[in-house]
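Hey, quick one: can you model this chain's 3D structure?
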Amino acid sequence: MSDRSKRYRYWRRNLLYVELLLVVWFLVSFGCGILFADRLDAFTVGGFRLGFWFAQQGSIYVFVVIIFVYAFLMNRLDRAFDVDDRRGRRSR
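Sure thing. Here's the predicted structure for all 92 residues.
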């Protein structure tokens, strides 16, 4: 496999991760916080309606979780493509 092909595959996988995580973030923040808020308000979390909770706090919590998921996925991708910085070697 050529170096150019390897970089292309690495970049495409990175973009796939970003796209999927942005879709999750959109669904949680816009979908749960705005579009489906009325339906979610039938449930409560800590005494607050679920639609309100997602609009005020839930989407922020999900965003923080997405950051950790992205870091985990990218570390795994770096190891798979042998560009892991933690071991002191970098293939370019």
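One thing worth noting: The chain has a mean pLDDT of 88.
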